[in-house]
Amino acid sequence: MPEQYDLADIILGVDPTNPRDNLRRAESPASTGDNALRKLAVCGQSCWLDDLSRQMMREGELSRLVALGVCGVTANPAILAKAIASGADSDTDIKQAAAASRTAPEIYEALVTTDIRGACDILRPVYERRGADGYLSLEVSPLLADDTDGSIAEARRLWAAVDRPNLFIKIPGTKAGVPAIEELLFEGININITLLFSVERSLPASTSHSVELSLQVKLPAISPWE
What we know:
Layout: H1 7-12, H2 19-22, H3 36-42, E1 48-49, H4 54-58, H5 61-68, E2 72-74, H6 77-86, H7 91-99, H8 104-130, E3 136-139, H9 148-162, E4 167-172, H10 177-186, E5 191-194, H11 199-217
Parallel strand pairs: 1-2, 2-3, 3-4, 4-5
Helix pairs in contact: 7-8, 9-10, 10-11
């Protein structure tokens, strides 16, 4: 990829070598107007970014993308681990936590909840303006995919640690994940269901979501597949 391309260029479908496309780059007054993300929004579509790092927030990249029209962010352990390992932004926090005899999982959780909280704050205006967008999605450990109680416990802990209303806790739609999803939705925790690769797995996940919403508003449950 040529060096002149950056993440915003790719998302916006911008060719920086084209003078007309340069009008839509971030340094242009027209950059928040007619761009690909705004056109998607007019069609009722929302663009979420599947990436997050402390560097993106420190350098203002996430804020710039949100200003251009990015409506949400998803993150998972692989994305967050890569971000921590590829830069030096978290090194001081890691050294201090290690010196305090904290375990690797404890250090990881402290780092990611801090970063997720900061990203939620950047997205908060979108959440308050649109309601259906402006969320950041944080996944429970993949080691808990077959552990209902463990998923519930970790989701509660992450929800409390981040303490932001525009947080999604991502739970896999496995057989063990569905009961966890039902319980957490009933408790009022925002849930993003992931790892749905077949209709067989999508049906129970979708039905559980409908059931819990109906309990919240005291209406009959309606299956989205009927």
